[in-house]
Structures are given as structure tokens and as C-alpha cells.
């Protein structure tokens, strides 16, 4: 067990649950904020796993996640914003 | 315990601390716009610090460059997505028109 795995364990147990809690509740837009932070947390955890298990080839996973997570969030935001009123604001 | 390893550990602890603070802020800050402030520290500071710690640990080379690319992608993507979520929230609350400029 090295420092990298300890850090990833801390992030898994203390960092991810608040994001999942936020994804579970309230309006879709607020859930999207939780999803966005969960993606960042998962990128960090995957990065720490690559160093903790000494497998540098696994860096590609967080690299792909760092590219796709913002794109996915933008797609969600586009559709969630579309529910707004057609005409003038109230 | 070389100097480089100590520097990497310090950067790691700072990065993890920022990520944990962001997670706590996501729950604690007021709905719905205050919570958006919890997203950007994680993407602009937390993950880049963790990636920098890993880059310092692995030493100069191709893998360090890949780690720094991940940090840059996350930092840029984080700022953009936070604004997009704020806009979608405002549109849904009818504060913005649907076709308002981004």
C-alpha cells in the first residue's frame, strides 16, 4: 500500500459519495453538477491507480475520460437547457 | 525518501485536499447556483495538482507530458462545463431565453 493508493482510497470513500448524493437528488440541472464533479473525481482516482499499481500504460483511461466527460456534460446541458420557455422570460 | 518524492507527496496531499473540499462544498453551498462554485476548484486546481504530483514522481519524459495534457484538458473542460450547467439552470428557471447567446 503506497501513498497513491491511500490517496485514491480517501477519494473513493470521502470524495465520491457527496457527488453520488448530489446526482441522486433534486432537479436535473443540479444532478448534472454532481455528475460533472464525479467525473473529475473519477479522473483523479484513475490517475492515482496508474501510479499506485505501477502500470503507466493505464494513463490512457483518465486521458479518454478527461476528453469525453466535458463533452458529455455539454450534451446534457444542451438538452436540459432546452426545456426553457420559448418566449420571453417571466 | 528523495526530495522529488517528498515534493510529489506534498502536491498529492494538496490536490486531494482541494478535491475533498470541492466535494464538501457541493453539498454545503446554497442551491442551485452556489453549488456550481464547487466544480471549478476541483477541475482547475485539484486534478491538476494530482497530475503534477504524478508527473513529478514519474520524472521527465513522455508519460509526464501525457499527465500534464490530462491536467490541461480537465482545467479547460471544467470551466466550460460549469458555465454550460449554469446557463442550463438559468434557462430552466426561465431567467434566460432558450435562444440566448452562449
Automatic annotation (TrEMBL), chain A:
Topology term for the membrane: Multi-pass membrane protein
Localisation: Cell membrane
Sorted UniProt keywords: Cell membrane, Membrane, Transmembrane, Transmembrane helix
Family matches, as InterPro entries: MrpF/PhaF-like
Primary location: membrane
Pfam families with a match to the protein in the record: MrpF_PhaF
Lineage: superkingdom: Bacteria
TM helices/strands, residue ranges: 32-49, 61-80
Name by which UniProt lists this protein: Monovalent cation/H+ antiporter complex subunit F
Automatic annotation (TrEMBL), chain B:
Family annotation (InterPro entries): PhaG_MnhG_YufB (IPR005133)
UniProt keyword terms in alphabetical order: Membrane, Transmembrane, Transmembrane helix
Pfam families found in the cross-reference section: PhaG_MnhG_YufB
Residue intervals passing through the bilayer: 38-56, 68-90
Domain of life, per lineage: Bacteria
Designated name of the protein: Monovalent cation/H(+) antiporter subunit G
Record organism: Streptantibioticus rubrisoli
Source species taxonomy: Bacteria, Bacillati, Actinomycetota, Actinomycetes, Kitasatosporales
Amino acid at each position: 500500500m503506497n501513498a497513491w493508493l491511500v490517496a485514491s482510497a480517501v477519494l473513493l470513500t470521502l470524495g465520491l459519495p457527496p457527488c453520488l448524493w448530489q446526482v441522486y437528488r433534486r432537479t436535473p440541472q443540479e444532478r448534472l453538477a454532481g455528475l460533472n464533479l464525479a467525473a473529475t473525481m473519477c479522473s483523479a482516482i484513475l490517475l492515482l491507480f496508474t501510479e499506485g499499481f505501477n502500470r503507466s500504460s493505464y494513463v490512457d483511461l483518465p486521458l479518454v475520460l478527461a476528453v469525453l466527460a466535458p463533452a458529455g456534460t455539454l450534451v446534457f446541458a444542451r438538452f436540459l437547457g432546452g426545456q426553457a420557455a420559448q418566449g420571453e422570460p417571466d | 525518501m528523495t526530495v522529488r518524492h517528498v515534493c510529489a507527496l506534498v502536491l498529492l496531499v494538496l490536490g486531494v485536499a482541494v478535491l475533498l473540499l470541492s466535494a464538501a462544498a457541493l453539498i454545503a453551498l446554497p442551491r442551485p447556483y452556489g453549488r456550481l462554485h464547487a466544480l471549478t476548484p476541483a477541475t482547475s486546481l485539484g486534478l491538476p495538482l494530482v497530475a503534477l504530483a504524478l508527473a513529478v514522481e514519474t520524472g521527465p519524459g513522455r508519460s509526464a507530458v501525457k499527465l500534464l495534457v490530462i491536467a490541461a484538458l480537465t482545467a479547460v473542460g471544467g470551466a466550460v462545463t460549469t458555465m454550460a450547467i449554469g446557463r442550463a439552470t438559468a434557462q430552466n428557471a426561465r431567467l434566460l431565453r432558450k435562444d440566448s447567446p452562449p
